[in-house]
Design brief:
Blueprint: H1 9-34, H2 45-55, E1 62-66, E2 73-75, E3 80-84, H3 85-88, H4 93-110, H5 114-143, H6 149-190, H7 199-233
Parallel strand pairs: 1-3
Antiparallel strand pairs: 2-3
Helix pairs in contact: 1-7, 2-4, 4-6, 4-7, 5-6, 6-7
The structure holds zinc ion (ZN).
Residues 101, 105, 177, 180 line the site of zinc ion (ZN).
């Protein structure tokens, strides 16, 4: 059962693992750094988000407090932005950057930005596919070499197709996240939430967050390459 432990795979796996660790350390470091730096307008994350939403005609989008650290997200189904404690009530550079990024998602949603619509549409089926894929893959591999070989290969293929959908999800997510951060910086400038000399810090905070999405995509791609290699050998 040591399929996939030959060729370039161990190196790819190691590289993607190191990249994931690097990205997660980088975002934690950026968050802790910019959570200690107060922003110059003294606005909290919730106030900054409210200002951006209202300026973009999104007065009906609610802002709620949610537990956790960096658990901030925009929920398109309920049109609610949920901000964590360290963002909602904090008047730091990290808080307004993250709040502006989530506002960017709300603006994308309001504009019916194509990639966001696609991501929202596939999110739930892909969530199921990511869980079920391994069941098909493991049974597929176990059946390989038995009298049910053909059936085994067929199961493996379904698993791989499901896993490919997960890679597509990450591929769609990355530009959506980059776009939300781009919108965040524009809005922070236009709405007077950010001073010019704060741009660099906000940019670094948002870039670090985007890196985690890139790492997730890389990890999923490496897994898919491994599965295709297993299939090739079978
Ligand atoms: Zn985002």
């Amino acid at each position: 059962m040591f399929y996939g432990f030959y060729g370039p795979y161990p190196l790819l796996l190691l590289a993607s693992l190191l990249f994931s660790m690097y990205a997660s350390a980088k975002v934690k470091r950026a968050y802790s750094k910019y959570s200690r730096i107060g922003n110059k307008t003294g606005m909290t994350g919730a106030q900054a988000a409210r200002k951006i939403l209202d300026a973009n005609g999104l007065t009906d989008v609610r802002i709620e407090l949610t537990p956790g650290v960096m658990s901030d997200h925009y929920d398109p189904s309920k049109r609610v932005m949920r901000l964590s404690e360290g963002v909602y009530n904090a008047s730091t550079l990290a808080a307004i950057s993250i709040a502006a990024h989530e506002s960017g998602h709300a603006i994308q949603h309001g504009e019916k930005y194509g990639l966001l619509s696609l991501r929202n549409t596939i999110a739930i089926p892909v969530g199921w596919a990511s869980k079920l894929a391994w069941v098909f893959i493991i049974i597929g591999i176990l059946l390989t070499g038995t009298s049910m070989y053909m059936e085994g290969n067929w199961l493996l293929d379904i698993g791989i197709i499901m896993f490919a959908a997960v890679v597509v999800f990450h591929l769609v997510t990355l530009p959506v996240e980059l776009d939300a951060s781009k919108r965040a910086l524009v809005q922070m400038r236009e709405q007077g939430i950010m001073f010019k000399d704060e741009t660099e810090g906000a940019r670094k905070m948002l870039k670090a967050a985007a890196m985690t999405y890139l790492a997730a995509l890389a990890a999923a791609l490496v897994q898919l390459i491994r599965l295709l290699a297993i299939r090739g050998r079978n």
